[in-house]
Amino acid sequence: MDAIELVSPFDSHLHLRDSDALKTTAPLACETFAGAIVMPNLTPPIDSIEAAQDYKARILSFCQKPFEPIVAIYLTDTLKGEVLDLVKIVKLYPSGVTTGSENGVKNIDQYDRLFAAMQEAGTILSVHGETNDFVLDREARFATIYESLAKRFPRLKIIMEHISSAALAKLLDRYENLFATITLHHLLYTLDDLLGSKLNPHLFCKPIVKTPADRAALRRLAFGAHSKVSFGSDSAPHIRSAKERFGAAGIFSAPVLLPKLVELFEENSALDYLQSFVSDNAQKIYDIKLPRKTISLIKKPFVVQEDINGFIPMCAKETIRWSIR
Ligand code: DOR
Ligand code: ZN
Question: In terms of pTM, does the model score above 0.90?
Fold first, then answer.
């Protein structure tokens, strides 16, 4: 096959940042995606409906093409049950586990009433599922928290964001109300790519890329487009010096997402499942209807830029076998 069309690609987990960075991130998103769930870990966090509406307007002011940003609300003490009817998705960051989680949750048990109200309102709970344990165990250690939430709030839809381990992949078929997003980088890379030869800070993210067995578990889910899984890039740009001098966590994958996904799915004879993985599953999981936007890709090599406005993209200077037409 030399060409493929993807209908209304959707990114279920995206960081667009704010202010000047939007000049870079928003056009990239609206060029190839019909919509995205936009993460609220800004400074200050997007933790109210008003802040989310203003942020959405700022995003759209940089979009030249139709694009539907769904801004998640950052879970803090100020979020009250009464407003939940107006909120599609609430993001839980355990305090201290990642970029912009300083305002996150210190004690999850304190939020039972809110989770009960979310369950009634049909609000989705999106979770960065990591503890503060040893780095390779952080995600697996969060499994018991997911299980407890899933059991105690059986009608609350819980998204395990950017799963990176076999330990969490296993939970999907055990609990009806657990869902997951998977990134491109966790499908591509393991610890060897990050630090097996020269340290590559541009592949450093939270949760960290893991073992070949973990990656294989994620690939089984993605390459069969498991119905409880959707694509969420977690593209998270940091300016070059923040990555190379200060070790900020986050991979800027937005400039390569669809060509690289097509390349990877083709290599693994899974192209038939890509449409479900990048759009159809998400539309069902999040109960959204996206405007139709058809993106054509052709088998023509493209060389990824070295630097995009001071941000270093994933796969910089590499050649990808597919390009956007
Ligand atoms: O690597 C990451 N970067 N993981 C996250 O959870 C947040 C993100 C960011 O915002 O930079
Ligand atoms: Zn993220």
Answer: yes
